[in-house]
Amino acid sequence: MHPNRAFRQAADDEILAFARARSFGVLAMSGPDGPLASHIPFVIGGDGSALEAHIVRSNPVHAVLRDAGDHGVEAMMIVSGPDGYVSPDWYGIEDQVPTWNYVAVHLWGRLRLTAEDELRPHLERLSAQFESRLQGKTPWRLDKVSEEKYAALARAIAKVEMEITKTAGTWKLSQNKPDEARLGAADGVRGAGVGSETDMLARLMMSA
Question: pTM of the predicted model, to two decimals?
Answer without folding.
Answer: 0.91
